[in-house]
Model the fold of this input.
Amino acid sequence: MSGAGKKRDASDECAAILLRYLQEQNRPHSAQDVFSNLQKQHGLGKTAVVKALEQLAQQGKINEKIYGKQKIYFPDQNRFGNTSESELKGLDNEISELSCKVQTLQQNCRHMESELKELKGSMTTPEMVKEIEDLKKDCANYTEKLERIKSAANPVSPEEKEKVYNEKKLYCREWRRRKRMVRHNYLQFKNDIIVLSMYLGNQQNTF
Done:
């Protein structure tokens, strides 16, 4: 069999699997839902699932509804006999709920990706630690300089003493600020990584 023939057979098999699944479930699904639920069992690819669903919708074997940028698929209800108005309304409500959930998840994912990108672009913990060490050395140098001035035989003007003292205070204050920033960023980064890992690990079980 030629490569094109094998590809067509694989596409037809994928469409048959999806059609059977949607008819058995008889409820609305997004392409992501179908992919997440069948990928492990049948080894289907995301692109193949999307194309097969669009093909089935074009053939009239399943129905497709678009909510914003989200497409929802469900089986043709004519195949299940007469459907009451309340059942159709229930399906519409379920589709709306699923669409809202998908949009919320997408927004959360974008927010987390933005936070992760911001964290990656900020100063790393080793870099912050090094800068704190440098500030500590500067602080110690100014302390030593101040002590030498205090113990010097030659008198030092009050202005020079005040200048050195203020510089010492500035560096010590900056060191303490950087130290707090390192701890805060480390804890925030650790927490965001945990939340993002839990979200990505459980996303496929949503719905």
Observations:
- The chain has a mean pLDDT of 76.
